[in-house]
Amino acid sequence: MTALPEIREGGLDLAEVHALLQTHLDTMALHSPAESRHALDLSGLQVAEVTFWSVWEGDALIGCGALKELSSEHGEIKSMHTAAAHRGKGVAGKIVEHAIATAKARGYTRLSLETGSPDGFAAARTLYARYGFTECGPFGDYREDPYSVFMTLELG
């Protein structure tokens, strides 16, 4: 019997998390030029305003995600990645649901994200739209970029 996925806060000290994050960065590099990649590296995830989650199925790391506080009312989803062998199993949806619940618990009124515009990011855009995220303009420190799609969800 397969263990249910478990979302754990942290894990940035684990080698398997480092490897998954490197895969995430490498995947971004396949679809976007360097100046259009906004994924956080390990040091970017280790700052106080970022909460990082690793997702496990038993002893197997199957995904990750993070929530960055932009202000007391606005958060940003970062570093969403599902291990290739676990795609299509709802892992990313569980991370999005967890991020939304955490944002609401923190009192955020808005949750936003940046993802890619190339075809390699189509599944991500579809996932976020399924949870009610809609396209918006750049937020925070972002600028218009033909390789970026900005999305937001009003939390009320």
Automatic annotation (TrEMBL):
Gene Ontology MF terms: acyltransferase activity, transferring groups other than amino-acyl groups
Sequence ranges assigned to domain N-acetyltransferase in this UniProt record: 5-156
Superkingdom: Bacteria
Pfam families in the record: Acetyltransf_1 (PF00583)
Keyword annotations from UniProtKB, A to Z: Acyltransferase, Transferase
CDD domains assigned: NAT_SF
InterPro entries in alphabetical order: Acyl_CoA_acyltransferase (IPR016181), Bact_Acetyltransf (IPR050832), GNAT_dom (IPR000182)
Name of the protein described by the UniProt record: Putative acetyltransferase
Native organism: Thalassobaculum litoreum DSM 18839
